[in-house]
Amino acid sequence: MLEVCEDHLEETRILAVQGLKAVPVSEIFKHAVVEMAELSGALCLPKVQWKPVILRSITCLRTVLQFCPDKLIPRLFPKAKEGLAHEDPEIRKAYVLLLGTMLKMSSGKRGLRKQLHGSLACLLLQLLDPSPMVAQVCQQTLRKCVLAVESYTFSKAFKNHFSEDTYVYTPFIRDATTALRETSVYRDVALDFTKSPQPNQRASAAVFMGALLERIGVFSFFTARKLKKALSHLLSDPDREVQKAAEQAKAGFP
């Protein structure tokens, strides 16, 4: 049954979940650890080989995650965040879906609040993915997960700025950040994205940090200084679009 959940079809994955209910949680956890090890080692393989290994492992982990989220989510979150910078759009899409599953499974669990908000931050920042397929999946995942955040303001931001086919990123982020809690988590994820090899992630980080700075009252002086320093660094980014995003975000903040 554990092998069945490696199938990439959602219907098969759901059937696997039903069958796994009869499997001891300890065995599921052992299998998940093996999959995480394979996922970590996949980048050491030739490119032709690592893609199916990564996709299979992520699909499997999405399935088993709901049986032992308290143990798996803290281990998986750093790997999922890192995976959003992958060069292959299909793999980025798989990581977006994994983060969506983690967000939903973290909802209502006090011990997983950091991972819940971290997953949300990653999905918000990934909305500017250069692949239309990944950006659309990210948007759809956020729509499905919005209830997990339990915020009227956040839901309203979706209603105001998202349509079925398009959205306006900067105004949405500005509205959405007013509803965010655990601000240090969002700050740290945004700072991590400024170091990404992908220009779209650095650009979205600039927009996000600018929106956070507008809420300067919730930050300590030290935190605000870190955000401003990161934006200043992005002003000299080799990508012109990243520079523009940083310039707009830093406007009004000396």
Description:
The protein is 71% helix and 0% strand. By secondary structure, it is mainly α. Helix 6 (113-125) packs across helix 10 (183-193), helix 9 packs across helix 11 and helix 12 (221-234) packs antiparallel against helix 13. The model is unreliable at 1-9 and 11-23 (pLDDT under 50). The chain contains 13 helices and no strands. The protein has one domain. The protein is globular and about 55 Å long. The chain has helices at residues 10-20, 25-41, 47-64, 69-83, 89-106, 113-125, 132-149, 152-161, 169-177, 183-193, 199-213, 221-234, 240-250. The N and C termini lie far apart (58 Å).
Features:
mainly alpha, single chain, globular, 254 residues, disordered N terminus
Number of strands: 0
Beta-strand residue fraction: under 5%
What is the string of helix and strand elements? HHHHHHHHHHHHH
- What's the number of domains? 1
The gyration radius over C-alpha positions equals: 18 Å
Q: Please state the overall shape, judged from the principal axes of the Cα atoms.
A: globular
- Give the structural class: mainly alpha
> Percent helix among the residues?
over 70%
User: Biggest sheet, open or closed, and with what strands and sense?
Assistant: none
Helices and strands in order:
Layout: H1 10-20, H2 25-41, H3 47-64, H4 69-83, H5 89-106, H6 113-125, H7 132-149, H8 152-161, H9 169-177, H10 183-193, H11 199-213, H12 221-234, H13 240-250
